[in-house]
Specification:
The structure holds 2 protein chains of 2 kinds. By secondary structure, chain A is mainly β. Chain A is about 0% helix and about 50% strand. Chain A is globular, with a radius of gyration of 13 Å. By secondary structure, chain B is mainly beta. Helices cover about 0% and strands about 50% of the residues of chain B. Chain B has no helices and 12 strands. The chains are: A mainly beta, B mainly beta.
Chain lengths: ~110, ~110
């Protein structure tokens, strides 16, 4: 079945540690996105990518980094510079990056130890 | 920059009744897409309905319909015959010329039996 897979479902980060959240899609979608959701809050855009080897900062990119080396994959690294990383992270994709709906993964809950 | 505003953090409706969730947005673009997404307690994001700005006819999907007022930059969601399974967070979202998709802060909908 086609879809978006995020892993792990739960992740714990120690102080000063970088962690990477995985996002893989087999929908052949061009555009991929990372959103952060805090309790009771909406989704805030971290990074998005319209094509391979290209990505753009969203509204809250500081403390995060991404790569898009393959069409199927868009991993997000939460660096030690992100001082408040505890949140629910959602990955999404869309077919042509202009007018199609988003398909979402099931999310990763990141917590700080 | 585009913004999306949902002014009702929480709403309640009696089962089988009708409820309307509000969304306003700000943009200088003429062509864009608007969406309503539902997030149940599982936190999986589900597309409820989508509207293209160039279409004057309001979108409908079974019990869900929108009231799209382009001049007023308003995009409300009406849920008819509310069911217990409709209880969720509802997010309004905007997508313009570029791939960037932005979300409102959401409205938590409670269904009263």
């Amino acid at each position: 079945d086609g879809g978006i897979t995020q892993s792990p479902k739960y992740l714990f980060r120690k102080e000063g540690q970088n962690v990477t959240l995985s996002c893989e899609q087999n929908l052949n979608h061009d555009a991929m996105y990372w959103y952060r959701q805090d309790p009771g809050q909406g989704l805030r855009l971290i990074y998005y990518s319209q094509i391979v080897n290209d990505f753009q900062k969203g509204d809250i990119a500081e403390g995060y980094s991404v790569s898009r080396e393959k069409k199927e994959s868009f991993p997000l690294t939460v660096t030690s510079a992100q001082k408040n990383p505890t949140a629910f992270y959602l990955c999404a994709s869309s077919s042509d990056g202009t007018n199609e709906k988003l398909f979402f993964g099931s999310g990763t809950q990141l917590s700080v130890l | 920059a585009q913004t999306v505003t949902q002014s009702q953090p929480e709403m309640s409706v009696q089962e089988a009744e009708t409820v309307t969730l509000s969304c306003t947005y700000d943009t200088s673009e003429s062509d864009y897409y608007l969406f309503w997404y539902k997030q149940p307690p599982s936190r999986q994001m589900i597309l409820v309905i989508r509207q293209e700005a160039y279409k004057q006819q309001n979108a409908t999907e079974n019990r869900f319909s929108v009231n799209f007022q382009k001049a007023a930059k308003s995009f409300s969601l009406k849920i008819s015959d509310s069911q217990l399974g409709d209880a969720a967070m509802y997010f309004c979202a905007y997508k313009g010329y570029v791939a960037k998709i932005i979300f409102g802060k959401g409205t938590r909908l409670h269904i009263l039996p």
